[in-house]
Amino acid sequence: MTPVLLADITVFVLSVLVGFEVISKVPATLHTPLMSGANAIHGVVVIGVMIVAASLDTTIGYLLLFVAAAFAAANVVGGYVVTDRMLEMFRR
Amino acid sequence: MNTTTHLLYLGTAICFVLGLHLMNSPATARRGNQLSAFGMAVAIVLTVVVLIDDGIITATAAVVLAVGAAAGAGAGLVAARRVKMTAMPQLVSLFNAVGGGAAALIAFADALPESVDQPVSTTLTIFLDVLIGAVTFSGSLIAAGKLAGVVPGRPLTFAGARPLNLLLALTALVAGILYTTGVGGLGTLGLLTGAALVVGVLMTLPIGGADMPVVISLLNACTGTAVAMAGFVIGSTPLIIAGALVGAAGGILTKLMAVAMNRSLLNIIAGGFGTGDEQGSPAVAATGTVRTVTADDAALQLAYAGKVVIVPGYGLAAAQAQHEVVELAQALTSHGVDVSYGIHPVAGRMPGHMNVLLAEANAPYPQLKDLDEINPQFAATDVVLVVGANDVTNPAARRPGNAVSGMPILDVDKARSVIVVKRSLGHGYAGIDNELYTNPRTAMLFGDAKVALTSLVNELKAYVR
């Protein structure tokens, strides 16, 4: 395995552990906003779409790019907005 | 990637972790989400700068990217602004689907230039990304359809579904291995995608409506994992970190939900027995007699109680009666009655959904109690009002040898009296009689949750001014 892959695996495993630690403290009351907020965080996939966009130069590539960009942007924008709407109701 | 870029990406990862951490209290949760959104904005701007700086991206790709993103962002914004709180689970499921779909497309886009010889570590992550992403995409779409009522909520099975699913899963696996080892090319990857998409559909169709909280959690974990795999494919650390965090969140929620429903994950995926919607069979419980109560008597009982606990369930969410129940609670509170809500982890259609519905109807969140908090309080409770909850209140769970044995329940039978608002004596998803209904201390108020609660509020006005 290359050093880069090993480093990536290390980051992945440690992030999973951090995730377990942080999320197990979230109370049941907030589980829906938590899931919705986590949903928004995986909207980070939009960055991945932007990075692969740099290597695409064919029609089929552009087609994939368009769909991926629309999907990812809907995920990230919608995810954060809807989570904020929900959490607003909890502020009392 | 230079040092500054790398450190800024690290900063966004810190925002995600701290944002999730702030979710541990309702007072700070909103700030947490905003911090996470801020981190995301920084990451996006940073990536734009890097793209411009590198200058490799073609003008067409840049335009396609911008137009696609604008279209998606607009659609996401409109959906997020307009959605009703009762429809939240299907929207979350939809966002989950597109996230998984985007992750799978990234792997596809990376695999497109076939001339480049990819190392096995890359082809393997492409395989995993496409597999998980495609299953999540179609699975989440079906789940969203079931939650929205477009696809029937009951388990859908057909003869030969299981062998077909197995065959498809095997096809996907073989295609994946062929692709990973470099034997098969893009065609193999296409075959893998097709098989994975059908597997996602066939896996979600037989799962009943009441099992949806577990399924959404699981699909959420899968999307996280798919995004992390996409991070491996293109060598992007923020994707790996964020994907792993989401995977962990989904994993924890999946486990919590499965425990709360007393089901193993395998049992839920195998599907076929959870129906979700109560079957409305008018059959009377096998043993004992059932006492009924009129709305007038029930209102009188509530008005003269010192402590009332309301137990809302799936039926309340289905009848969209959250405003009525809160109106009732407010009338009682202003009359000096101590009111709280006992909320089972699986009440509603996704984890914590009931809390969101009640918060939307302006129930003060200190009144919302979870299972461990409320159970010791039932012995000191005068009246428990159960609205549309069934199996989670069945005392049979304390005995071994039946369908709900061992399931964590709300100990409502320990209260001095219980009023159950329900349409009929029909069974919950476990398909057994609820012994609570034949308890001498229980009275049934038959009717639709919304109608029954409205008449309770009206009757209450005679006693409370």
From TrEMBL, chain A:
<keyword id="KW-1133">Transmembrane helix</keyword>
<dbReference type="GO" id="GO:0050661">
    <property type="term" value="F:NADP binding"/>
</dbReference>
<keyword id="KW-0472">Membrane</keyword>
<keyword id="KW-1278">Translocase</keyword>
<keyword id="KW-0520">NAD</keyword>
<dbReference type="InterPro" id="IPR024605">
    <property type="entry name" value="NADP_transhyd_a_C"/>
</dbReference>
<feature type="domain" description="NAD(P) transhydrogenase alpha subunit C-terminal">
    <location>
        <begin position="9"/>
        <end position="92"/>
    </location>
</feature>
<keyword id="KW-0812">Transmembrane</keyword>
<feature type="transmembrane region" description="Helical">
    <location>
        <begin position="62"/>
        <end position="82"/>
    </location>
</feature>
<comment type="function">
    <text>The transhydrogenation between NADH and NADP is coupled to respiration and ATP hydrolysis and functions as a proton pump across the membrane.</text>
</comment>
<keyword id="KW-0521">NADP</keyword>
<feature type="transmembrane region" description="Helical">
    <location>
        <begin position="6"/>
        <end position="24"/>
    </location>
</feature>
<feature type="transmembrane region" description="Helical">
    <location>
        <begin position="36"/>
        <end position="56"/>
    </location>
</feature>
<protein>
    <recommendedName>
        <fullName>proton-translocating NAD(P)(+) transhydrogenase</fullName>
        <ecNumber>7.1.1.1</ecNumber>
    </recommendedName>
</protein>
<dbReference type="GO" id="GO:0005886">
    <property type="term" value="C:plasma membrane"/>
</dbReference>
<dbReference type="Pfam" id="PF12769">
    <property type="entry name" value="PNTB_4TM"/>
</dbReference>
<keyword id="KW-1003">Cell membrane</keyword>
<dbReference type="GO" id="GO:0006740">
    <property type="term" value="P:NADPH regeneration"/>
</dbReference>
<dbReference type="GO" id="GO:0008750">
    <property type="term" value="F:proton-translocating NAD(P)+ transhydrogenase activity"/>
</dbReference>
<keyword id="KW-0997">Cell inner membrane</keyword>
From TrEMBL, chain B:
<keyword id="KW-0521">NADP</keyword>
<dbReference type="InterPro" id="IPR012136">
    <property type="entry name" value="NADH_DH_b"/>
</dbReference>
<feature type="transmembrane region" description="Helical">
    <location>
        <begin position="58"/>
        <end position="79"/>
    </location>
</feature>
<dbReference type="GO" id="GO:0005886">
    <property type="term" value="C:plasma membrane"/>
</dbReference>
<dbReference type="GO" id="GO:0008750">
    <property type="term" value="F:proton-translocating NAD(P)+ transhydrogenase activity"/>
</dbReference>
<keyword id="KW-0812">Transmembrane</keyword>
<feature type="transmembrane region" description="Helical">
    <location>
        <begin position="35"/>
        <end position="52"/>
    </location>
</feature>
<keyword id="KW-1003">Cell membrane</keyword>
<protein>
    <recommendedName>
        <fullName>NAD(P) transhydrogenase subunit beta</fullName>
        <ecNumber>7.1.1.1</ecNumber>
    </recommendedName>
</protein>
<keyword id="KW-0520">NAD</keyword>
<feature type="transmembrane region" description="Helical">
    <location>
        <begin position="124"/>
        <end position="144"/>
    </location>
</feature>
<dbReference type="GO" id="GO:0050661">
    <property type="term" value="F:NADP binding"/>
</dbReference>
<comment type="similarity">
    <text>Belongs to the PNT beta subunit family.</text>
</comment>
<comment type="function">
    <text>The transhydrogenation between NADH and NADP is coupled to respiration and ATP hydrolysis and functions as a proton pump across the membrane.</text>
</comment>
<feature type="transmembrane region" description="Helical">
    <location>
        <begin position="91"/>
        <end position="112"/>
    </location>
</feature>
<dbReference type="InterPro" id="IPR034300">
    <property type="entry name" value="PNTB-like"/>
</dbReference>
<feature type="transmembrane region" description="Helical">
    <location>
        <begin position="164"/>
        <end position="182"/>
    </location>
</feature>
<feature type="transmembrane region" description="Helical">
    <location>
        <begin position="240"/>
        <end position="258"/>
    </location>
</feature>
<feature type="domain" description="NADP transhydrogenase beta-like">
    <location>
        <begin position="6"/>
        <end position="458"/>
    </location>
</feature>
<keyword id="KW-1278">Translocase</keyword>
<keyword id="KW-0997">Cell inner membrane</keyword>
<keyword id="KW-1133">Transmembrane helix</keyword>
